[in-house]
Amino acid sequence: MFCVGATANIYSQGAFDNITLGGSIIMVIFYLIVAIFIRKFVESNPKDIDKWFKK
User: Fold this and answer.
1) pTM above the 0.70 mark?
2) Contact between residue 7 and residue 27 where contact means Cβ atoms under 8 Å apart
3) Can you state the angle between helices 2-12 and 21-44, rounded to 10 degrees?
4) For 10-35, how does the pLDDT look when each residue is reduced to its tens digit (9 = 90+)?
């Protein structure tokens, strides 16, 4: 939902003057695809993620 809301917010501010609403929807789909892969990676490697963020 964050990706959809953020994209809609910056779209209304004119950040995508050369991009149509359909282009914005495609961009959100790409955000969500990347988010799915990141989530799957984090869920399948919790020990590696913990090691990265330990001091």
Assistant:
1) no
2) yes
3) 150
4) 878 887 788 888 887 888 788 888 88
